[in-house]
Please model this.
Amino acid sequence: MTALTLSTAAAAGLRADAIVVGVAKGAEGPVVAPGAEAVDKAYDGRLAAILETLGASGAEGEVTKLPAPSGFKAPVVVAVGLGAEPEDTEDKETAFTAESLRRAAGAAARALAGSKKAVFALPASDAADAGAIGEGALLGAYAFDTYKENGRNSKNGKAPLAEVTLLGGKPRDKAYKAAVERAVAVTEELNRARDLINTPPNDLTPEAFAAIAQTAAKEHGLKVQVLDEKALAKGGYGGILGVGAGSAAAPRLVKLSYTHPKADKHLALVGKGITYDSGGISLKPAGHNETMKCDMSGAAAVFAAVVAAARLGLQVNVTGWLALAENMPSGSATRPGDVLRMYSGKTVEVLNTDAEGRLVLADALWAASEERPDAIVDVATLTGAMMLALGNRTFGIMANDEAFRTAVHEAAEEVGEDSWPMPLPEHLRKGMDSPTADIANMGERMGGGLVAGLFLKEFVGEGIPWAHLDIAGPAFNEQGPFGYTPKGGTGSAVRTLVRLAELTAAGDLG
Model:
């Protein structure tokens, strides 16, 4: 894990491999951002001109390296683009958004793979900015190298940046200290979610995922309950059992509970945990199977968020439900046309076995509803339709309450996760009518992501605010890394869920 510390020392005297400064894109060329005044002065006020000569513009994510000025103990200065210069204001230091700081810090951390220590002198007007920079740097320094022979999987086989020092924040200042502690807790758990998503499905079976959750629960003082296939059958969890019926790896339902002695609010989180999705009998076509280890990203996000809430000591009760199964074709697999009796008692006609995520979520949503929490949020890589609608970097939000949907969307925006509110049109519900069962698991093809949300809504307890996050697009990055986002598992929705837990603790959600 990359270490994160605060310092008020002068940049020139710090021993490090690099000093990171910010540069914005101005109307007439690059502009040195606040926080780098001492560095700019050491270049005789010519840092912006030098960067322009080197081709730098200040565009978001742009990284330019140059030799450090005379007298600096660090040999290299790394200038990272923050994007467009803020509009004219008396205090430009406050005008850079938290997300622009996160992305810049992440880009710099990725560029410094192989370095032991870097000092970040980016614009930080307050503790929140420092926390954002810390988050970006720690997320950008991520690498998944478990399966590499030499233990290196970053650019050119270099290890991730080992230590980050943030300038401008007093180590003993309570606000700055809390911001750094929060950044460390959230990013470490988010990176653990990334590890889970990137782990191949032959190692991350439902049973293995449940065991990891049990170990984490013991470490962080959480209560954990694991229902194996026998307990699921006894309890009547027909959705989870139906999806897992074709696999040699039996399904699991994991309940993780964090409780605070002074909490008077309860937030339930439900995650889709399909550790591998072949589509089942409705087999996916060639070219659509290779990344299906990521179909448990929702469960990984829920797991990470519950542990993070515990580490932060939030004054709220948070329950995480991990609906874990492997969707495989075999002689024992659920067939199109089969009818499953769900945990709620409803029957579902399975028209397509590749619409399996909604089946495991339905059982977990009903189990969560039985505890009558103040709100339920589910997270899932649920539909390709949502990717067609919103692309690869934005997740959709559906809900049974417009105010709650707005609150979730605002929380996601606050932490820098791209999302968009989506409707649940009632006219689409009719398409799931079944002549055989209470409901079918498929409806109209057009608006498929919304149909899936309407299906899930049927399994949420009456009167409980509920939101559904379809993270199919941003959960797994098949392109190149950008900002603080790596290639592969991203940990999408973790920060949104943690923020929702914080807002619930403060009584400010919805």
